[in-house]
Amino acid sequence: MKHYKYILLTTLVVCLTIQGWSQNRIIDSNFNTWWSNINKYNISNNWFLSSELHIRRANGLSDWQQFLFRPALNYKLNSPVVLTLGYTYIKSYPYGNQPIAILTPENNLWEQITLKHQSGKFKISHRYRFEQRFIGKTNYTLANEPIIKGHVYTHRFRYRLTMSIPLSSNKKMFAKGFDEVWVNLENNLMPVGLNQNWLYAGLGYKINSRANFQIGYMNQLVKKGDGIHYENNQTIQVTIGYDFFKHE
């Protein structure tokens, strides 16, 4: 199978990442721990629901970074293609040396296409997500106290390339890695620069046909709205996944 179109897209994404890395940057680094639960609920051979719960802590376990809840409806078009409609509720907290002014909510609608294929022992997936974001707008009182009033509407595009390979003969142990680039979009859907980049490497274990456990390290690069301030966060990520009502 020819994968030249995936190579072309990956090259474009890397170029956007490099372009978004400002020369006059102020970088803050944090050590974070992320705890995730990702579940799948089969409805039929083609339709399934999914849910994600993410508890993200900053300064190790001491402070909140984010809370996310993400339900979605998925349709398996065929073996390599899955279409998804989803919603994410997000709370972002002040943390680190470049904190936001106040706890900020976000309601996020998104559409996604996932393409899967295999090359030798490697399982490869390409995830394309388009988001419509309703972010709480920070205003200030006469006493200069921050408050959330109204929202800001923005768009964002995300592309994730994931690769995994079994490490044992029974395929219970596996290694997994991914790189995900987040690009801010203008209202006409044209890209305007990097938002984030995630680079992850980890190990996983299939507890049984339904459940798996993963732990890994992720580097999270975050570009702030002013284009000058960045976060370069070191993150330990722990994930438990479960497949309810799995068709055996």
In short:
With 248 residues, this protein is mainly beta.
Write the layout of secondary structure elements.
Elements: H1 4-19, E1 26-28, E2 31-42, E3 47-58, E4 63-78, E5 81-92, E6 104-119, E7 122-140, E8 146-166, E9 173-185, E10 191-206, E11 211-223, E12 229-244
Parallel strand pairs: 1-12, 2-12
Antiparallel strand pairs: 2-3, 3-4, 4-5, 5-6, 6-7, 7-8, 8-9, 9-10, 10-11, 11-12
- Number-wise, the strands total 12
Secondary-structure-derived class? mainly beta
What is the CATH topology descriptor? Porin
Radius of gyration: 19 Å
Number of separate domains: 1
What is the N-to-C succession of helices and strands? HEEEEEEEEEEEE
CATH architecture: Beta Barrel
Q: Could you list the spans in which at least 5 consecutive residues all have pLDDT below 50?
A: none
Instruction: Output mean pLDDT.
Output: 91
- Overall form: globular
Percent helix range:
under 10%
Biggest sheet layout: 11 strands, mixed, barrel
The helix count comes to 1
Quick one: CATH class? Mainly Beta
β-sheet strand percentage: over 45%
